[in-house]
Design brief:
Strand content: 15-25%
Structural class: alpha/beta
Helix content: 40-55%
Distance between the termini: 8 Å
Radius of gyration: 14 Å
């Protein structure tokens, strides 16, 4: 991370959703990250197919969101990670990240896969993931708001 003084920090939220559950979680993350109490963070909010290497190079922190598909992350999230790995290789400082998953099962396959890939970037997991098992409920959405707010606040405070 580069010392930018009073310049705003940059938080990138990348997600994929087909049925709407993960999108509702992503919206809650965005609401938390853009809370009026946080003034020194710019947030980019992008679907996985629309995000690219330039977004990662812009970011000081990252939040990834995916449904669990066949016990794995979504193909769109995998595509994002595949498309961006080599273009940013050697150009990123360790990037703090967190994730949220809408899981039909337990979410462990998606978590394991993302964590394995994240180690190669390098991304550093800084918060526990939010995993909505079996359906997204109000408590999951609140946890997503808190996830977005906590990462943005930590970025603004210089913790990350």
């Amino acid at each position: 991370m580069t010392d930018l003084g009073s310049a705003p920090k940059h938080l990138l939220v990348v997600y994929h959703s087909m049925g709407g559950s993960t999108e509702s979680m992503a919206q809650a993350v965005y609401e938390g990250a853009t809370d009026p109490l946080i003034e020194g963070v710019d947030v980019r909010f992008k679907r996985a197919f629309d995000a690219g290497a330039e977004d990662l190079l812009w970011a000081h922190a990252l939040i990834l969101g995916t449904p669990e598909n066949f016990g794995y992350m979504s193909g769109a999230m995998k595509d994002f990670l595949d498309r961006t790995f080599y273009p940013v290789e050697g150009k990123l400082q360790p990037l703090p990240y967190a994730m949220f998953i809408s899981a039909g099962n337990d979410g462990q396959g998606a978590l394991t896969a993302i964590r394995r890939i994240a180690n190669g970037y390098p991304f550093t997991e800084v918060q526990d993931p939010v995993v909505a098992k079996g359906g997204v409920e109000a408590g999951h959405l609140e946890a997503c708001r808190e996830l977005g707010m906590a990462l943005a606040a930590g970025l603004e405070a210089g913790i990350y």
